[in-house]
Amino acid sequence: MTKRISLTQYLVEQQREHGHIPGQLRLLIEVVARACKRIAIAVNKGALGEVLGSAGSENVQGEVQKKLDIISNEVLIEANEWGGHLAAMASEEMDDIHVVPNRYPQGEYMLLFDPLDGSSNIDVNVSIGTIFSVLRKVGHNRGVSEEDFLQPGKFQAAAGYCVYGPQTTLVLTVGDGVAMFTLDRETGSWVLTSENVQIPADTKEFAINMSNMRHWDEPVKRYIDECLAGKEGPRGKDFNMRWVASMVADVHRILTRGGVFLYPWDKREPAKPGKLRLMYEANPMAFLVEQAGGMATNGHQRIMDLGPTKLHERVSVILGSKNEVQRVTEYHLESA
Ligand code: AFP
Ligand code: FBP
């Protein structure tokens, strides 16, 4: 039988042998992983835990919050605030940053998360997930403000997600490739199940919400039209489409077998740069995708080079198999 490697052992080895992660970061990742286990338990209970349905409130972007959105947010905050590894947290579900209270020691890291991505899938029992990103606080003063969070994604110290699907899987990067851990429900431990994950450069599968087609910009329309033209078209091959409507699940498929994911800017709200959130969704996913040999842009620029101007900033997202993302990006640059 092959030896099982736990998340703890993987992280200790990253710390000891590769020098990639300081002790505080290791602790932080372990705490996030533990919180994800608690969220997985709540998600699995579903109607039995009385956790389904709306909470009757809205978040800062005016979206209706589900009970599980709020529960997951609370689980992540409670688990992380006392450990001494964090200075502050920011969440898609909170208007402002949550500074670690004075009664606890303050660490040098800042944690950002979308506590439960794919809210529309919660009540219908389709895969959902938690996305997280870790930044280092610049400067050693105790105070921390929203400005400290406004760093380009290329400065992330770690990023990952946990997908609550047929299996519960934690996917992680600390800047040394991508590793996947499957939750062993019998022992309660995360077991390393894939290492050095690689996204193939070419693909025949795209993910986009096709119902928005009439609102798309010309380069996106051109790209999808060419995919739809199949073998007879300029691409010379048939494409398949998949859209889960949980970014976590769509990105997990791409990390597993390749593909391209697009949530582009469109003409519905011309002033809005896109739908997805830069700090809680696009940056962490871009870090994972690049670490797996893929590419992530907003059609014009690398996502991880973008300088955020506010915490809840939105962005256009094209990510996945390198040659496809390159192609869509070229179509944008040609039409600019
Ligand atoms: P929430 O952030 O409200 O959970 O929405 C999930 C999401 O931002 C992302 O995970 C999906 O890719 C996208 O929404 C699906 O959006 P559409 O319903 O517009 O297809
Ligand atoms: P399997 O029986 O091979 O699992 O296929 C499942 C399925 O028949 C349906 O569940 C699903 O709606 C459909 O395939 C998806 O098919 P497509 O790949 O054509 O979108």
Summarize the entry for a quick read.
This protein has 336 residues and is of the alpha+beta class. The chain has eight helices and 17 strands. The protein has an eight-stranded mixed sheet with strand order 4-3-5-6-7-8-9-10, sandwiched between helices. The chain has a five-stranded mixed sheet with strand order 12-11-13-17-15, with helices on both faces.
Which strand order do you get reading across the main beta sheet?
A: 4-3-5-6-7-8-9-10
Work out the helicity level. 25-40%
Give the DSSP E fraction (strand runs of 2 or more residues): 15-25%
The protein's oligomeric status is single chain
> Strand tally, please?
17
Estimate the global geometry from the Cα principal axes.
globular
What's the number of helices? 8
> What is the CA-based Rg, rounded?
19 Å
**Unreliable segments (pLDDT under 50, ≥5 consecutive)?**
none
The overall pLDDT average reads 94
Distance between the termini: 56 Å
Q: Give the SSE string.
A: HHEEHEEEEHEEEEEHEHEEHEEEH
Derived structural class: alpha+beta
Identify every distinct bound molecule in the structure, by name, code or SMILES: 1,6-di-O-phosphono-alpha-D-fructofuranose, 1,6-di-O-phosphono-beta-D-fructofuranose
Biggest sheet character: 8 strands, mixed
Organism: Sphaerotilus montanus
Subunit structure: Homotetramer.
Keywords: Carbohydrate metabolism, Cytoplasm, Hydrolase, Magnesium, Metal-binding
InterPro entries: FBPase_C_dom (IPR044015), FBPase_class-1 (IPR000146), FBPase_N (IPR033391), FBPtase (IPR028343)
